[in-house]
Specification:
Elements lengths: L5 H8 L12 E7 L4 E9 L5 E9 L2 H14 L4 H5 L3 H7 L8 H21 L16 H4 L4
Antiparallel strand pairs: 1-2, 2-3
This protein binds FE2/S2 (inorganic) cluster (FES).
The site of FE2/S2 (inorganic) cluster (FES) has 11 residues, from helix 2 and helix 5.
Length: about 150
């Protein structure tokens, strides 16, 4: 059996929302020191707290790219409040699952979305219920990666 679903392969081979947003409303970067993968998410949020656009850049494995792609698709057009509820489990389900060793890749996507929302909230002096600061992780110093 193939370890990856067709959806994972599709989002890996043809990722949606790749790129960056100039003057983004919020940017979140997270990494996993163990595998060294890094994910960055850019949000363009309108005055009604609706995510008008979202882009990502991922230096990582195929599953990290597929989960970033799916996560961005799932929060595009949603409100900040809705986006905050996005879980790695929901992203994995939308991709028809991931092999157990790749679950942490989807966690990176959830954390990157939260980090971008955190940055948005900080920049706009907003208190958003349920929003926590991004994990101090994310071992940027250990990965030595400049992003
Ligand atoms: Fe670490 Fe995929 S192997 S994000």
């Amino acid at each position: 059996m193939e370890p990856y679903s067709e959806k994972v392969m599709d989002h890996f081979s043809n990722p949606r929302n790749v790129g960056e947003i100039q003057d983004a409303s919020g940017v979140g970067t997270v990494g996993n020191a163990k595998c060294g993968d890094i994910m960055r998410i850019y949000l363009d949020v309108d005055d009604n707290q609706v995510i008008r656009d979202v882009k990502f850049k991922t230096f990582g494995c195929g599953a990290a790219i597929a989960t970033s792609s799916m996560a961005t698709e799932m929060i595009k057009g949603k409100t900040i409040e809705e986006a905050l509820k996005l879980t790695n489990k929901a992203v994995m389900e939308a991709l028809d699952g991931l092999p157990p060793v790749k679950v942490h890749c989807s966690l990176l996507a959830e954390e990157a979305v939260h980090a971008a929302i955190w940055d948005y909230a900080q920049k706009h002096h907003l208190a958003i219920e349920g929003l926590r600061p991004p994990k101090a992780d994310i071992h940027e110093e250990e990965t030595g990666c400049p992003v």
